[in-house]
Amino acid sequence: MEERNSWPTMDLLRSEKMQLVQLIIPIESAHRTVSYLGDLGLFQFNDLNTEKSPFQRTYAAQIKRCAEMARKLRFFKEQMTKAGFLPSGRFDVNTDVNLDVLEVNLGVYEAELTEMNTNNEKLQRAYNELLEYKLVLQKAGEFFHSAQSNAVAQQRETDVYRVGDRSVDSPLLLEQEMSSDLSSHVKLGSVSGLVPREKSMAFEKILFRATRGNVFLKQAVVEDSVTDPVSGEKAEKNVFVVFYSGERAKSKILKICDAFGANRYPFTDDLGKQFQMITEVSAKLSELKTTIDIGQLHRGNLLQTIGYDFEKWNLLVKKEKSIYHVLNMLSIDVTRKCLVAEGWCPVFATNQIQSVLDRAIFDSSSQVGVIFQVLRTEEPPPTFFRTNKVTSAFQEIVDAYGVAKYQEANPGVYTIVTFPFLFAVMFGDWGHGICLFLATLYFIIKEKKLSGQKLGDILDMTFGGRYVILLMSIFSIYTGLIYNEFFSVPFELFGRSAYDCRDSNCSEAYTIGLIKVRDTYPFGLDPKWHGTRSELPFLNSLKMKMSILLGVAQMNLGIILSYYNAKFFRNDINIWYQFIPQMIFLNSLFGYLSLLILVKWCTGSQADLYHVMIYMFLSPTDDLGDNQLFLGQKYLQILLLLLALVAVPWMLFPKPLLLKKQHEERHRGQSYTQLYNMDESAEFESKSVGSHGHGDFEFSEIFVHQLIHTIEFVLGAVSNTASYLRLWALSLAHSELSSVFYEKVLLLAWGFNNIVVLVIGVIVFIFATVGVLLIMETLSAFLHALRLHWVEFQNKFYEGDGYKFYPFSFALLSEDEE
Q1: Which label site among 156, 355, 703, 712 has the fewest CB atoms less than 10 Å from its CB?
Q2: Which residues of 64-87 are buried (b: 16+ CB within 10 A; e: fewer)?
Q3: What is the C-alpha separation between 666 and 632, in angstroms, rounded?
Q4: Sign of the CA dihedral 79, 85, 91, 93?
């Protein structure tokens, strides 16, 4: 027994045997024990402190500490990303890093980097302000003289208006000047700066309205975009100068500038001072540029130092946080000297876990060992399948429908073959299959390189299912060889066609037909069928009958798996009153139809199977006439019809009545039973009731459930068989689309005898083939194959009401985990 548990064979049909384990761990070795179990990755901890909030747990302070270090690491990563640095992926996994030392170092690095960022922001803002100031000095100096001369002209006109009659249209500024002392000289003030270009028109209108036209605004466009000192973003701006008179006007202008986000800078009308200011600003810009470059160099060196050890620190913090999260799930013994853990683990991992526990005790120099004991429980264990990179994608397809119940038959085993095969039945073209194969082969060859990259949602999903697509492409090549289609073109790959023309010029090939001159084509469809008048009726008949055969075979497989489930769980009621009547009902109708198809193919009979199946129900005693395929067919049909009718009440009535009888006998016998038998009886009851899960037996609910199940199966036998006709429909659609693209695009372009038209035709053909046939048709066939497995196949036996085994493992730590 121990030898079998130490190294079991991988078995996808049944999930691994699980056991509920209790660990009693000394406090001094608890951290190391959890860490070693995380490295092993085969133990799922149960939370024993569900009544406590996260802040009331023992190690909440340590988790908060790790969260703070994780925040600092995220801050470092953001800074490195902005600076264009990539963290070094090379680090020594075995290097021990003290968490206390790391916390201190991270704090020092964060303080230093924050100070550098603050200083750099201040310097950059000052640099941008000086750049804008220089632009204002240059642009405003160009038109300041004209503005000043206009002001003088306005002053002279004022002198004329003082002695003449005052007009109603005179500006209010003139009224203010005339009411003042005539000997006083009007001094115009100015406000200069930069305003965003998209706000310049509104800025001008608001200034005019607020001052009632008593301002003079001049703007100049700045050709290049300017970095805004406040936001730090590039923006297109205009330099403006506003001339005004009076303190009230100045106050309004300043408020409007602030409202429009205009940056103001001082300006003087003295030419000497202007030149001096431009010189001083240029010198300061040069000094700031040098200072900023030195600071950026020092900051880059610091980020490189952080980036060299970033991955090591990040992994350590994630591990420590996950360890303390697990420790918070453990229960502290009243003695405060040990921690009690409970969790699930596979039976085969018992020796590995005990070895890890012994190593943790030895490395922590603890005087007390870890106690490992298996607990008995009625709780259903988690489901754990050991998969590899090939089988994991198929298991994910099954798990998307529902996780298997503990040790329930796993459809994933059969999905590995049936899923790509049913896809290929719909997609069959060995030219398209080769294209899919080559594309998938690239993903597999570049597997190591691409696995560590972010490819985007669609490519990442495609890369994850690369082995599924690989098998789909291989099966598509196989079915394409059977259909004899290479981009809809037939080839004589396995010998010459069995048919030939009646004469040398083949003038009657498509009117009278061909004659058989050789042996039957050895593999797949004879190439001469393509292009003939009878191609479509022949392929329709072939693929429709083939779809029914495949559907009935897969549904029978599902019912057979329900038998193995019932036998495994020792549920004899399901065997006798569910499996057997279901097999009888399905095969009495559609199994018989499959038999007729095979007999017709083998005998070459012209019998109408539609007529046979319809009148099997309407007139079962009538003679079959020309539709008889074998002797005794009429009596066999009557027998099968009676068996199908008997199977329906066989499924409906006995099971609920037997469950009720078992329940009454069990409770009658438990009136004076010993206490230790209660667990066994409860277990027996749960097995007998099955998926109903009622503590108090209610016959009405059981009967209604069985009635629904029976109706669903009877109707589903018809609808599910019809659903498999999608194999025929999609195969026909794929073949016809491929033929249209080949004949109406490629051959049509070839017929023009023009190189330009030919090149265009080839390009259109390639894009149509890739876009429609290799992408859209692949997705369509994939979804239809998925539906056939989830609905038509899995509902015959698969409950899917389990839950996954999620072990505590450092290998499963997400990169985005916080």
Answers
A1: 156
A2: ebbeebbebbebbbebbeeeebeb
A3: 49
A4: positive
| C-alpha span between 153 and 365 (Å, rounded) | 98
Antiparallel, parallel or unpaired: β 237-244 and 338-346: unpaired
pLDDT tens per residue, range 491-543: 999 988 888 877 766 656 555 667 888 888 999 999 988 877 888 888 999 99
Q: Kindly give the pairing relationship between strand 18-26 and strand 338-346.
A: antiparallel
- The contacts of residue 385 (CB under 8 Å, 6+ apart) are 12, 15, 16, 395, 404, 410, 412
Gap between the Cα atoms of 563 and 629, Å rounded = 33
Instruction: Answer yes or no: is 662 within a domain.
Output: yes
Residue reference for tokens 């038509």:
792
Write the DSSP string, 521-551: PSSSS-GGGTTSTTHHHHHHHHHHHHHHHHH
Alpha carbon distance 391, 389 (integer Å): 6
What's the CA gap between 185 and 206, in Å, rounded?
28
Share of the chain above pLDDT 70, in %: 86
Q: How far apart are CA 625 and CA 618, in angstroms?
A: 16
Examine the domain organization and report whether 396 and 277 are in the same domain.
no
Q: Is residue 615 part of a domain?
A: yes
Residue range 553-568: average pLDDT?
Answer: 96
Say whether 586 sits in a helix, a strand or coil: helix
Average pLDDT over residues 386-400: 93
Residues in the chain: 818
Question: What is the per-residue DSSP string for 779-801?
Answer: HHHHHHHHHIIIIIIGGGT----
The neighbour count for residue 519, using CB atoms within 10 Å, is: 9
Give the pLDDT mean for 261-286: 83
Tokens of 152: 């003088």
Structure tokens at 375: 């607990």
The DSSP line for 264-296 is EE---S-HHHHHHHHHHHHHHHHHHHHHHHHHH
Give the span between the Cα atoms of 707 and 658, in whole angstroms. 15
Among residues 164, 169, 249, the alpha carbon closest in space to that of 212 is found at: 249
Measured CA to CA, the distance from residue 86 to residue 107 in angstroms comes to 21
Residue 343 lies in a domain: no
Domain membership of residue 146 as a residue range = 127-151+187-290
Give me the DSSP letters along 52-67: S-GGGSTTHHHHHHHH
Determine, yes or no, domain membership for 344. no
Structure token digits, residue 498 = 């069995």
- What phi and psi, each to the nearest 5 degrees, are found at residue 611? -65, -40
Rg (CA), the chain: 42
Q: What is the pTM of this model?
A: 0.80
Last residue of a domain, which of 269, 290, 311? 290
Which backbone phi and psi does 533 adopt, to 5 degrees? -65, -30
Q: In the predicted model, what is the mean pLDDT of residues 119-128?
A: 91
The CATH number assigned to the domain holding 192 equals 3.30.70.2750
